[in-house]
Batch of 3 targets.
Target 1
Amino acid sequence: MLSWIDGQPARDLPLADRGWRYGDGLFETVRVEQARLLCWTYHQRRLRLGCARLGLPAPPAELADWIGRAIDRTGPGMLRLAMTAGESGAGYRRPRPATPHWILQWQPIPPRPAGGEGIVLYPCRTRLPRDPALAGLKHANRLPQVLARAEWQDQAEEGLMCDTDGFLAAGTASNLFWRRGSCLYTPPLAQCGVWGTRRQLLLDEVGALGLTVCQQRARPSALADAEEVFICNARIGIRPVRRLGHRRWPVGPQSRRLQAWLVEAEQRTAWAA
Amino acid sequence: MLSWIDGQPARDLPLADRGWRYGDGLFETVRVEQARLLCWTYHQRRLRLGCARLGLPAPPAELADWIGRAIDRTGPGMLRLAMTAGESGAGYRRPRPATPHWILQWQPIPPRPAGGEGIVLYPCRTRLPRDPALAGLKHANRLPQVLARAEWQDQAEEGLMCDTDGFLAAGTASNLFWRRGSCLYTPPLAQCGVWGTRRQLLLDEVGALGLTVCQQRARPSALADAEEVFICNARIGIRPVRRLGHRRWPVGPQSRRLQAWLVEAEQRTAWAA
């Protein structure tokens, strides 16, 4: 893994940083292909929103340069773009103004295979707390997801989490969709979860594909009569779900169609460094 | 500030660490006086509980040595004893076994003044999410407290937080008590907040002082007919509250009495390095 802090190659973070002390920061996990940052429009929007909601400065003008130098001449990979609230003395109080650190970490991963088998979802017991102040943001307070991911080893590719009221919320690192007829359903994320870039792209664009999206508060039992189920995120794109506990679904036609659509949409919303 | 990682003087944390990426860790803030760690019995218990609940290894046998060397010949100060889940590749999944990093940070602060004026509490709008899986632990996911602390500057010494249902929870970095007659009231923390060491000491011992403690789910209006109000934590001990918004309280006799009791109780539960 290659790493940079504020544009300089780095391996370490100062111990005075608030990132490790309080999770006082944000991150984006961006898929990079041929020096293009897929879905950058959406990553950038969420990042700016996160900075504003956490009361931290917006990304600096130099960030584009730093990213460009980091991914120049790299192959396919994932770029983790993170910010912390920077350094401070003891206590929750931030300095005013805060001086964030911007951290880039790049690692190669293979391009996504076209199609791909359906995956298995593990039904996690760990639940997502409801917190409208932080809901949607990709902030660095991720213990619920870490605890959920520790519930299984290799028998599933992803885990499904409910919120603390028992309603469907999200995968540990992905968003959930299910389809009945021409309607895609996905949990509303006003109270918990991350507003995934691919989820938002679907919300914005599937109308043009003859589908509607309904953000529905639903129990896991709502998946019983789904015709197909899929998850999405920056790394895997759209992946059909073939099993959750005893429930099974076919790899459906809309999942395949949306996979193809996503390849084009990700490029259309990309940024070339 | 002096810092050590795993017993070695250090200024930085590896960027591969999960602490800054996910807040995957725990901490204790321990008051040190004359090379004694006040209330260590309680800090150690909470730390061990946190390790177990987060699925991380218990503190290593060497930790006592590392602490001893860190605070040897220091004056009065605060020792931040933190652990992170250690280093890993990308993603929420921890390595098995996880190899935590243990981080010590020491800084001098004056001893607590005896008595002290009553303080002002700021009524924070930011609320604590309800999450029984993490409630009580002093984990490193502290964005709600950070956002609450950013709501005021110098017009108050501490802020009061409710949970997302609007019930009294805690100070941003302290626990809350109020008294009517011979009963001390404090919010139950089964859903959010930190099980403070001084709070637990009070719960364990005030019976012997002729007081009872009731853990009561209460709205802020319950403070209206309190005869006295105080907060407590490792740094400030017990501090009377004289004002919250338009409400005022006297510095009460039980606050003064408990301050004196705490000095003894902290020493009795201390550990001499």
Target 2
Amino acid sequence: MPVITKNFTIETQGHSQILDITKQVKSQILNISISSGIAVVFIPGSTAGITSIEYESGVMQDLAAAIERLAPKSIHYNHDARWGDGNGYAHVRAALIGASFTIPLQDKQLLLGTWQQIVLIDFDNRPRTRKVILQLIGE
Amino acid sequence: MPVITKNFTIETQGHSQILDITKQVKSQILNISISSGIAVVFIPGSTAGITSIEYESGVMQDLAAAIERLAPKSIHYNHDARWGDGNGYAHVRAALIGASFTIPLQDKQLLLGTWQQIVLIDFDNRPRTRKVILQLIGE
Amino acid sequence: MPVITKNFTIETQGHSQILDITKQVKSQILNISISSGIAVVFIPGSTAGITSIEYESGVMQDLAAAIERLAPKSIHYNHDARWGDGNGYAHVRAALIGASFTIPLQDKQLLLGTWQQIVLIDFDNRPRTRKVILQLIGE
């Protein structure tokens, strides 16, 4: 049973932009020797997260508003006081959402729901080029 | 090392009902050819989540209250304004909790704590029949 | 492809102490027969969680403050009313953060970002000796 490591890069605008990466993830599993197993979608770094959602503009605004309530930009962050990065809220948001998301794979298909997309949320306070890692294990 | 995909269905009441699915998950691993590895508990769909908790009625009420603070039902949701579903809060809650939960399996036992149960939280605004997927990889 | 189960114990102060366990996790994968695959970091129990963050004292304070907003210590918890444990908030926090974190492993290296550490957060209201499980699958 092989292990296959894939990755792709994606340009983000930061500022808690939510990007649908389902297509990119699916394109990585088209021509591999694993048909069933798991796909771990992982974002290296401490200012972005991975989850799933119905990727629809209304929900995106609603999720952004919830994240803003959870770790508002406008409050004091000790990280910023120490380092002057101005992205203390991004670190907190990323830790709460999580950097890893594991999806079952069966017969070359990710077992996502019909309205369930994989999203990368870039919480940083500037545009970034992000590398997303896809770890595939199976048979 | 095989990959085994199992699933079971469960009737929910929606409205952020928290269901203990530990027994159902355990029953799926009784007679399989994998004794050690991982079990990925995954909910397809965008209005439910999976996590673990001490399944006790006091804690259930406390978790429900925390989720209500996180994404209150009574505020405006753009999803509802666009689609009229009335379940905008469910999408936001599901994205924050996450659809996937991975548990180590050793000698046919899930390595959960004594007071740690696997729960499905159905955030949708109506009863649902949910299919839970269990992806098992190991030896 | 083998499955390897490791664990280590760590003394915590509880009270939402955030501990960097990256070194302990890395030390477990030094001399094993798996070089590529996944590492599942799992905390058995219902009052602690695992995630990743830039482990820097400012961010630690900021994350602690966000967790306090999410499930404040000072409000009423039904768990405490029923059981008198006084750690109702700990159960809620743990369920929201999650007990499991999966990291890709390639050529004996965890594919974490440069500033991304694995953390255990012990939400309980007293010092604990925690056992962290590391489930490794790969080749």
Target 3
Amino acid sequence: MEKIKVAILGATGMIGQRFIEMLEDHPYFEMEGLYASERSEGKSLRDVLKVRDYVYKEETLDTKIEVMDVSKIAKNCRIAFSGIPSDLAGPTETELAENGVGVFTNAGSHRMDADVPILIPEVNPDHLFSVKDQKTFSNGGFIITNANCSSTGIAAPLAVLRDTFGLEEAFISTYQALSGAGYPGVPSLDAVGNVIPYIGGEEEKMESELAKMLGTYENGKFNFAKFRTFANCARVPVVDGHLESLTLKLGSEPSVEEIIDAFEKFKGEPQLLDLPSAPPQPIIVRKEANRPQPAYDVFAGGTGRSKGMAVTVGRIRKKEEYYKIFALSHNTLRGGAGGSVLNAELAVKKGLI
Amino acid sequence: MEKIKVAILGATGMIGQRFIEMLEDHPYFEMEGLYASERSEGKSLRDVLKVRDYVYKEETLDTKIEVMDVSKIAKNCRIAFSGIPSDLAGPTETELAENGVGVFTNAGSHRMDADVPILIPEVNPDHLFSVKDQKTFSNGGFIITNANCSSTGIAAPLAVLRDTFGLEEAFISTYQALSGAGYPGVPSLDAVGNVIPYIGGEEEKMESELAKMLGTYENGKFNFAKFRTFANCARVPVVDGHLESLTLKLGSEPSVEEIIDAFEKFKGEPQLLDLPSAPPQPIIVRKEANRPQPAYDVFAGGTGRSKGMAVTVGRIRKKEEYYKIFALSHNTLRGGAGGSVLNAELAVKKGLI
Amino acid sequence: MEKIKVAILGATGMIGQRFIEMLEDHPYFEMEGLYASERSEGKSLRDVLKVRDYVYKEETLDTKIEVMDVSKIAKNCRIAFSGIPSDLAGPTETELAENGVGVFTNAGSHRMDADVPILIPEVNPDHLFSVKDQKTFSNGGFIITNANCSSTGIAAPLAVLRDTFGLEEAFISTYQALSGAGYPGVPSLDAVGNVIPYIGGEEEKMESELAKMLGTYENGKFNFAKFRTFANCARVPVVDGHLESLTLKLGSEPSVEEIIDAFEKFKGEPQLLDLPSAPPQPIIVRKEANRPQPAYDVFAGGTGRSKGMAVTVGRIRKKEEYYKIFALSHNTLRGGAGGSVLNAELAVKKGLI
Amino acid sequence: MEKIKVAILGATGMIGQRFIEMLEDHPYFEMEGLYASERSEGKSLRDVLKVRDYVYKEETLDTKIEVMDVSKIAKNCRIAFSGIPSDLAGPTETELAENGVGVFTNAGSHRMDADVPILIPEVNPDHLFSVKDQKTFSNGGFIITNANCSSTGIAAPLAVLRDTFGLEEAFISTYQALSGAGYPGVPSLDAVGNVIPYIGGEEEKMESELAKMLGTYENGKFNFAKFRTFANCARVPVVDGHLESLTLKLGSEPSVEEIIDAFEKFKGEPQLLDLPSAPPQPIIVRKEANRPQPAYDVFAGGTGRSKGMAVTVGRIRKKEEYYKIFALSHNTLRGGAGGSVLNAELAVKKGLI
């Protein structure tokens, strides 16, 4: 199969560079170009590197960053992966879709649009087909978003619980990593040895995005899920990896063992279709008393392309009718670029591209 | 007034050294000796210093640590402040009480004893008198505990809400500081850039201690409060200062402004009695979007003796019938040594000593 | 004595707020106003707080920040303490001096001017009088700088060694705190778990400023000291406190004990004159194997006004003809605002104001 | 070729687990067993995991840790890779060599032995053959050490400079990572936001090991190199990656460009022999103003097996006759387990095994 040409938008940022990481030697996709704003004109990826733990190939590091150019991208690429900051992404993504490009974006601009899905292949793979109702779809253009990083990390566990036991209430507190704020993001004097109990708009996003994702798409319309979500979001001095505490009221009262069993048995579409970036085990249950931890579990998912693509849960406890769980996911891989790459892999397998 | 002679137990630890900090030049108390285990024999405070931000007087730093000796302490001291680790404190504290010493302890050993109060002067000052029912009280000995550090930081706000609006459910997640684990405590390879979602026994302690403290003492018996608590406890890479997210169901549905008003108007016994370590404002409400933060609010309380003795709350939000609040307190001052010093000041003013 | 009215310039920054800390209840000075750029108009100190460890008085926190106004300052204040960023400070400070204000500044703009001293009262108190040769001195205006934070921390130890044993070569590596970069300064993604081996212009500044400070002022001219300095500067994830390693070639070969003795015996002008912010012991020698450390020694100096004003040295070793020493100082107190306050105290005592 | 069976000693520690990482799927070696002390009996690698950034294969994680057993190892393994703590390693390693096992060790116990080489294949590959003079060599047993982590990171750059320009004096200050102290190592209360200017014995080790490594082996005897080294060692809150500042006096005065050129042209034995773990470019020169940094350069070396095996240098400056350079290497890969694996690869290629 000839590889599909893709553009990376926002290539100077944390998410853009995670896109590049996930697309080096990808079996379906080939990077046509790295795009960013005019500020980075003339620089190479090497000059603007922000990802700490991945070692890019020399030729990738030497790639020049190009200034964003919708017509060039539309001409050369079937797909654009967008890591553009949310406050800027909207119009560019719309324009690309209008020009026939399939946009897989991490930006929040279009997430709550009436005809745009927030897609997580393990959670709501059928939402994929909502793109057929987008006006631009007839000429090949569309927009598919992934959820914000704090919602992604818990969407699959919540979906499994809902499907198995019912789900009524979720009280959530987050311990979110610094990379979620992008670069330069949080000043070090506010981050070192500190916790910031505020991330603008994040709590509202979690509450609305989870409801949309875990809802249904029927007759050209998204119906929001009915369970209630109460989120408290905070930033902690961790580089990568969002940890979240969940206190949940389910529709029934299973034992802790039944919950573990439901998580461990779960396989989603990416696993069934064997998508290249799919983690073999999408939800990993740790049995130790003190896990999951960002330091040790952030890269859970596999040794290759699916590194960092699993969600890890642990400390599953029951008190009265409530269940307490900690969940962790890599916010710029699973909860960022990796989510969109998996979405694109699903779209290819399902014949949308 | 002649100052009351006091012993500091566990003087080589974080809590012990906070006791020393709070008792330098204290108007009621005079340190008779610094005591610890045999391992520190012959060392001075200077040799075992662990508190980062306080500058002790030269003469205090030069004080020799003595090996714990109950009979010496009982002979010379009316009071012992105990910062002994909880797993070792129990028998020594009992023996001291039997020998006529008033023990104010930060250790957990006796907290759930049937005749021992968990005292926070702003929350349950009347529990003080439960000590009269302790067997050793007739010869002057007794034990008064302060709550564990994560309970202390939220007890006063919860008590104010209960008294003003009623309190039914509290969903709590903690962001607890490293100093709460003592020294050497958490290995740095587990702490730097990480969150550990487990603190042994902490969630159970929060749930039971809050119920005892916010309950009543009547006819020689503690009646536990009835509201329900669901705690998730985690350790973050912060040196001092426990932050906690609260999602609360109250007995009625006040506005956010009414809650702020209740917090700001609140004065407890320490404020009314003008105790030396009492913060003028026991609960400080921050109005900024992103507070309280350990870095900026941990020392809230006053410029002198009451530094670090206030609780700071912020981000008070209402969603449906639930209220979301972040609360912060200094875990080794307000939530540790400072709590016991305030308890002792109350006992003096109330004539128990 | 009536207190001297002073203005604080750059009151929204780290250094500006350390000035405020050091001038609350100062026996010589009274803050007339807090000044900053137009961006902070209408805000109070409380709104822009950046210092973590100091608890300001309520009335100070409530003080409104005013927009910088040279004529107002010149009319109302005898002195201006400047924490303006170095790239902006120059013209404003010049204008203030021309209008008869005595400027004590932490900014680097004027440090290498031919008629402006870099003053450290323990090191070169006689340089104070060089201001008499400034053109503006006749109408009361002048500029006195303190050294940059990395030079200040080692100037006194180097001066003592030079005076006692001679000084030929200094190989220096720095471990500098984040607060030295101001706010917002270093992005947290570059700071957490990292070291940045570059601080723009810092190595050159250290090399030239030390030579000027340790040189002489004679016949209206600064003669630079002749010893050679080779500096390597790096930023580490510490909030406050610059640590530096020194490998020194002296003019003779004293024993380590003789060096300790020289440091411990040393008293400078601030000690002899008993200046309010003078640490009783300007150079503290730690004998432990693993000190000085920012966490434990950054506030060395005293329990009151001189907290953080001493330099701490330790690990003094000799290998062949070289001496190895670690030195630490608080970069925004001793190495920042505190340095200028001490300079102003000296100027008052010496009758220049 | 049949793979050579190897034992991993100290498999519960940081270095032991880096050995495992480097030996998964190794083309020459096959892990026969993971060994540690009795404390870990019955545990699997999964239970004692300490490496943060590497994702082991499931089957490796499930491997049981065995209690150290010299006779079993001697029977089954040709090679033992030792990550035993230095204070315990000596006798076990000797016993293994006496039983015919080739020991490649990261422990310091035997480094200064008269007949044991400290081997870095890029620096002193000929020292390999010194093992032929070890008493145990006749029956196949021998001991080869790698240098301590802080020496390894600068040995190759120093060797290149010596060979090209001569080398006379090296003034070194280190910024060493927490993982260098092993686990549990440094308490977090001493690490977070702090620098510890002391690592027991480290400065002496650097000074003696560099002299031995950069010396010659002739007529059964190591002759130490003559250049002088002055080291200051400090621990910084970084997880992995030792940064070091070097101020060097060479035998001549090349331009900075000539030095860069010498580094970039350098290839050692591992590169010429194309050893599996050899980084293509053993010394990488960064041209940016602010590199190398642990966060961004610690994994330099390649995308596969040689990840983290290069040394990165940068900020090469000349002042008068001295050269200033910052160097960085991964202390538990290049400076730990990776060094010994590379040594073993060299021994295989050179026919010693």
